């Protein structure tokens, strides 16, 4: 269980770092909810401007399917690089990703099953 919690905190760190570093986000809310099946992590990033090109790249990086075999090896490397490959790692650790961007507000929900 401790590894699961560390993985969740790495996911939160990577997503916040991406938005704060790459898009100057300064107003973010994070909610982590544990349930019987795993964890839901929700982000609301307010007052952010993201270009259509950056949004497409974000969706592409997060569009990678979960890969438990690689996850056990690579999750510990999260935070070691400062590029979008970190988002691909987040995607490999996540079962479901919902992303919406409307009127300057980004909502991102990640689900990680046990």
What does this structure look like?
- The chain has 114 residues and is an alpha+beta fold.
- The protein has one domain (2-113): Heat Shock Protein 90, CATH 3.30.565.
- 42% of the residues lie in helices and 28% in strands.
- It has helices at 2-23, 52-62, 68-74, 85-92, and strands spanning 28-35, 38-45, 96-102, 105-113.
- Strands 1-2-4-3 form a four-stranded antiparallel beta sheet, covered by helices on one side.
- Helix 2 (52-62) packs across helix 4 (85-92).
List its traits:
alpha+beta; Heat Shock Protein 90; 114 residues; 28% strand; 4 helices
Q: What fraction of residues sit in β-strands?
A: 25-35%
Q: What structural class results from the helix and strand content?
A: alpha+beta
Strands, count: 4
N→C terminal distance:
10 Å
Instruction: State mean pLDDT (0 to 100 scale).
Output: 87
Number of domains: 1
| The CATH C-level class name | Alpha Beta
Large-scale geometry: globular
CATH architecture: 2-Layer Sandwich
Q: What level of helicity do the residues show?
A: 40-55%
Reported for the largest beta sheet, the result is: 4 strands, antiparallel
Determine the CATH topology: Heat Shock Protein 90
- In the sheet with the most strands, the strands line up as 1-2-4-3
Give the ordered list of helices and strands: HEEHHHEE
Q: Over all CA atoms, what is the radius of gyration? A: 13 Å
> Tally the helices: what do you get?
4
Low-confidence runs of at least 5 consecutive residues: none
């Amino acid at each position: 269980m401790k590894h699961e919690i560390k993985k969740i905190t790495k996911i939160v760190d990577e997503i916040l770092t991406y938005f704060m570093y790459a898009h100057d986000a300064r107003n973010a809310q994070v909610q982590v909810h544990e349930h019987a099946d795993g964890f839901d992590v929700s982000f609301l990033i307010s007052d952010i401007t993201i270009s259509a090109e950056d949004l497409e790249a974000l969706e592409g990086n997060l569009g990678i399917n979960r890969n438990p075999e690689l996850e056990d090896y690579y999750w510990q490397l999260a935070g070691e690089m400062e590029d979008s490959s970190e988002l691909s790692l987040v995607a490999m650790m996540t079962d479901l990703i919902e992303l919406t961007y409307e009127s300057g507000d980004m909502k991102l929900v990640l689900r990680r099953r046990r």
